What does this fold into?
Amino acid sequence: MNSLRNALNSRVIVADGAMGTMLQDADLSLDDFQGHEGCNEIINVTRPEVVAAIHREYFEAGSDAVETNTFGCNWANLAEYGIENRIYELAHAGAQIARGVADEYAAVAGGGPKFVLGSLGPGTKLPSLLHTSYDYLKQAYREASTGLIEGGVDALLIETTQDLLQAKAAINGARDAINAHGAGRDIVLIAQVTIETTGTMLMGSEMGAALSALEPLNIDVIGLNCATGPTEMSEHLRTLSQRTDVLISCMPNAGLPVLGPKGAAYDLSPEDLAAALIDFNSEYGVTLIGGCCGTTPAHIRAIKDAFTSPPVQRPRERITEPGAASLYQHVPFRQDLAYLAIGERANANGSKAFREALLADDWQACIDIAKEQIRDGAHMLDLSVDYVGRDGVADMSHLASLLATASTLPIMLDSTEPSVLQAGLERLGGRSLVNSVNFEDGDGPESRYARIMPLVKEHGAAVVALTIDEEGQARTAEWKVQVARRLITDLTENWSLNVSDILVDTLTFPIATGQEETRRDGVETLAAIRILTSEFPEVQTTLGISNISFGLKPQARVVLNSMFLHEAVDAGLTSAIAHPSKIMPLARIPDEQRSVALDLIHDRREYNEEGEMTYDPLQKFLELFENAETIARRLSVAEELALLPMHERLPQRIIDGEAKGLEPDLDEAMTEGIKPLEIINTYLLSGMKTVGELFGKGEMQLPFVLQSAEVMKKAVAYLEPHLEKLESDTGRGKILLATVKGDVHDIGKNLVDIILTNNGFSTVNIGIKQPVSAIIAAAKDNDVDVIGLSGLLVKSTVVMRENLAELSKQGLSDKWPIILGGAALTRAFVEDDLSSEFPGTVRYAKDAFEGLALMDTMMAIKRGEADAKLPELRKRRIKKVTREIDDNVSTERSDVAYDNVIPTPPFWGSRVVKGIALADYVDMLDERALFVGQWGLKGNRDTYQAMIHEQARPRLRLLLNEAQANGWLEAAVVYGYFPCYSEGNDLVILQHEGPEKGQERTRFTFPRQRRDRNLCLADFFASKESSRIDVAAFHVVTMGNAVSVAASELFAKDAYREYLELHGLSVQLTEALAEHWHARVRSELSFSNEDATELQEILDQGYRGSRYSFGYPACPNLEDQVQLCNLLDPARIGVELSEEFQLHPEQSTSAILVHHPEAKYFNAR
It folds into this structure.
């Protein structure tokens, strides 16, 4: 049988190119569209010969299959023209045209079979955004699919999907039509998603999330089409090739659109498109290929010619990670070094706070409770709304819709009612987990099991299977395993679930009730887990952990829950429904409590020879907590403040950073007769002064300082309308702030802005990359009192020196005192070197609070205060050493080994990779660099660890959720491999293709050490004299500009702490991405097996080779960035090089990646 399925399994099938592009050139009239201009599907009934002619052009060009002209035969599109009642008619007509032409070409001798793909586009109504419902879309897609099937298509192609919930509706509607109208025909079901240039679908879904959600729906082919050219699709195809055995398709646009005289045009040549698809077939096994927007018969002809000789298939790494997915990301059921934590608090029966919010219809409070669990470390959220007197379907519909876009974690739908589960499933685009199925009322046609499983199957969900049968809840290990076997057998054989998509809950019961029949419940549950995971290694297991300790005091519950979870994980448990923040690490549980808890769990009662009990672990456990009072409710910060008198309360509010209750306090203070200006100057600024003192002593961390500044800002803004005009015009002084020319770093400058502003000073912040002319002009225009300049780059020190010289040249050295700061500077450089050259006043500020102190003093001097005096200039303690330049630079090679093996790269030249999933690189995040270096958290070992556990990690989890849900991260890489050799101190890069192949393309000249081993970076590459050609890898990675925009918006909204944290996170995620991509390069060069296994070792270069960035000690010349950018063209990922050789956006970094085993960090000076 010459079916499309057989053809796809045996060879590459070439589909056609764009239909719309061809119709635009057909000179159609408005009458041809029956007055519905732009509705291409109308042409199927008014000008079928035009559509047929386009099909013929593609078959002539070599297409094996053509798509029907039915992309817009969906409810949303046709409803815009008021003709949604014509879905079937237009779909059927389009299919008949294509079928007729395909049969015509199939009949030609030697032509081979020709296939018809029934095109089903997305429309503009997205169910995840509540534009329409899942069920309504599903029925519309069923109608269109019926028309296509009855018109004779070989496949239904659901393409350009932008919302996973819309894709699921389309797939299930199409499957229903196949089952109802296929009449035994082998109709292939294809699903193609559209990934934007941002690297995700329109709704923010990563490729992994799309695969997780759609693969279980029994599709035959999955792939990508539209939005981008092939370059941007590579990483997503790689994900598919690694993670699925389903056939893969790819239909790119002819590049990215460029604006031409006739609107958007596409300029990717037929040959380049064909070359990309050849690579996709050999590297990723793509078997259904074609073109989308901008592709023409010429492109298809080039593709067909390229596949005359099928390329060699390269071996592909396979990754099996069963799991669930939110709309945004895939989450594996098996977590590295941990259990899958399922947050239990969004449960109307298990959480009082959630229940009260639900009963009050306070939906935002419900969402906040759910999101708090993200902070606490949950990997998935349990959602249960069943409560007496409530409409469970309505509640589930509302909350599931909100959580679908608000949370990046998958949802476990927890209900015994099929209608409630259905409501949740029809509103969640990702892959959910259904909790639960069991045999409580059997497995007959009317059982709850038989009513829930069709929903599970339709939506591709995973299931929690409870060990309950017709006799009740299984209590013994034997009974639990017996029920589990029955469940697994039925779920896999009758419902086609994978064993790895089943989470068996072997049930937990309270073991501290004192009843004899409950004493061994813990033992039996643990035994069941061991037997089950041994018999079914792929099955997942779960438990509701808190059940074990029901009835105990809170402290006792925490200890018993924690110990039982540890024992269960040791037995093979893979997930737990728990409150992660209420699980204690074993090291923090006292030895006696731990020992007795284990005895209780394992029922280690002891008896004497007479059979009398001599040791009862339950009694002992109760005694251990007998004198432990219930943890007293700690007063909230707001309640503590309310107890203070007003003159203490207001400054303490600033110190605590507590905004709750601020406005009533300010009103009360004004009612008491305190003037607004006095409130600011006497009370609020007093609090900010204390904040500065605490920071200076190391007793307050930077994030909390910024939180105090936020409260100060809110207070001043609230009081401002109440200030008399004279009062509001009175300021303490004005400073201009700027980052100097060529420097894109603004975090330090902005922190100074925050602290000065909230201590009563006015600031004029003119931003980054400011030339001295702009600084002087702004200082004059704004009549400032002081100028503050910031710079992070080493080169910025030179720029600052030039700026001071220009001020002197213009006779302005005495007009403004100058404050200089930033990571590039030292106190000695400013207060010794620069102050000796600059006739005016210049001082160094190591941080924002020293800047505040200097500003205070400078303004006091300006006001003529007699005792006002700046700190004395601090001269160098160590004599400045001036190195003499030696013109006789050695080019003699060091003792670096020259006979190392040169790896073979997977390709020559450069490639762009976009849409890298956060989960792929977040594991490379250097938390210490983030928390200490970026966020400014410090302290001794104990206080630091407590701060990380209680503050930093929870805020990091929440921030990652926000960044992903809001699309702030646009991770992208451009990298490449280039042939090269070394010549003295030079690395010579060669042309890798074309008529000049093998000739010099560019060269980098590196400095050589004058000490130690006399190393030079060029030594790590094969020399020209060796006649060997080596390989040099380069990359540029970026987080994109969206995160910079988001951080700027936070700064503008006075959300200072969030601004600091998001900026710092984006910088460290860039480093994590660079580290991740270096690991990818090592993998592609086939020596990643030498990598260390621990993250800290990786961060300490625990791998072969090294990653060197220009501007650092081994290759200090920033100007070399020009050559690197010429090689890689990072503009393709939105990265530009400034005139000072800095990458922009700031969250970008570049490197040369060296594979030589001896290559490690070194200083070439």
